[in-house]
């Protein structure tokens, strides 16, 4: 996969070197099952048409620039993680648009002319609630009008799980309230983070990208994975933690070497610091090490 970082206005060289493609559009934080459906739909069309599969996303999140309503500055999938996930989904080209006030003020017609037609988009795919252009005045109905026959448009309809729309907002609400055990229904897997595990005395610290969106403070049952090694542990989230660091306590002696890259999966909220809640999925003595 080739990643192209785009500043506004788009350089002529980027447009000239672009390839005919089917473009999936969205911010895609979390790359949840709804996002995956958008990308899979785009891939099917790209394969049928013999075109490259492209994704266009933005960084940082528009809310952190426009500063209207709740601002998103932490991510379920930091950009580097999102890139790796896109590559696994078969994406050929990733356009990362630097979202600033200039981009925020682009009229929807100009966005289509410069960012879609200018990058040789032959078919655009996005979710039913996708919006673009100044003040989000462009929507999927408008995209058909703005395309003006220059490219096709496919809208992926709302996906629901447990009678609720699958969205990054719902996932954030679950994670921020500690209900990480409900995340797999929407994400397709447990909420996870990549990091480096370090032994500090008898404790462990996990060093992660400081852009990760953390669950609310409390104790969590987690799974640590590295290659074929898998073990259960407890992760403490505290408001006093330094950004990019998590405290991990093993139920057993961890089988990992110091400074090992690991994948941490959030499995279940155990308790907050006032013990206001306790709903572990299994007794601690039943949690086993598997290799």
Automatic annotation (TrEMBL):
GO terms for molecular function: ATP binding; FMN adenylyltransferase activity; riboflavin kinase activity. It catalyses: FMN + ATP + H(+) = FAD + diphosphate. The keyword Transferase applies. SUPFAM superfamilies: Nucleotidylyl transferase. Its EC number is 2.7.7.2. Transmembrane segments: none annotated. GO terms for biological process: FAD biosynthetic process; FMN biosynthetic process; riboflavin biosynthetic process. It comes from the Bacteria. Keywords: ATP-binding, FAD, Flavoprotein, FMN, Nucleotide-binding, Nucleotidyltransferase, Transferase. Pathway: Cofactor biosynthesis; FAD biosynthesis; FAD from FMN: step 1/1. The keyword S-adenosyl-L-methionine does not apply. Residues 15-169 form the FAD synthetase domain. Belongs to the RibF family. NCBIfam families: cyt_tran_rel. This is FAD synthase. It comes from Salibacterium salarium.
């Amino acid at each position: 996969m080739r990643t192209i970082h785009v500043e506004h206005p788009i350089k002529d060289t980027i447009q000239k070197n672009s390839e005919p493609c089917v473009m999936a559009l969205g911010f895609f934080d979390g790359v949840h099952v709804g996002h995956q459906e958008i990308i899979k739909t785009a891939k099917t069309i790209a394969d049928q048409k013999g075109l490259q599969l492209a994704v266009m996303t933005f960084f940082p999140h528009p809310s952190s620039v426009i500063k209207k309503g709740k601002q998103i500055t932490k991510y379920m999938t930091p950009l580097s993680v999102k890139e790796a996930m896109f590559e696994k989904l078969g994406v050929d080209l990733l356009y990362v648009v630097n979202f600033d006030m200039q981009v925020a003020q682009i009229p929807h017609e100009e966005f289509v002319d410069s960012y879609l037609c200018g990058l040789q988009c032959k078919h655009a795919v996005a979710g039913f609630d996708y919006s673009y252009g100044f003040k989000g005045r462009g929507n999927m109905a408008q995209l058909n009008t703005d395309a003006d026959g220059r490219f096709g448009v496919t809208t992926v309809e709302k996906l629901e799980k447990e009678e609720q729309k699958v969205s990054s907002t719902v996932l954030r609400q679950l994670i921020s309230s500690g209900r990480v055990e409900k995340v797999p229904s929407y994400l397709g897997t447990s909420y996870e983070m990549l990091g480096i595990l370090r032994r500090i005395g008898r404790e462990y610290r996990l060093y992660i990208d400081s852009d990760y969106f953390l669950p609310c403070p409390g104790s969590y049952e987690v799974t640590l994975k590295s290659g074929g090694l898998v073990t259960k542990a407890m992760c403490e989230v505290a408001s006093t933690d330094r950004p990019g660091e998590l405290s991990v306590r093993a139920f057993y002696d961890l089988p990992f070497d110091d400074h090992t890259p690991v994948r941490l999966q959030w499995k279940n909220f155990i308790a907050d610091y006032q013990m206001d809640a306790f709903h572990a999925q299994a007794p601690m003595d039943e949690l086993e090490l598997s290799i």
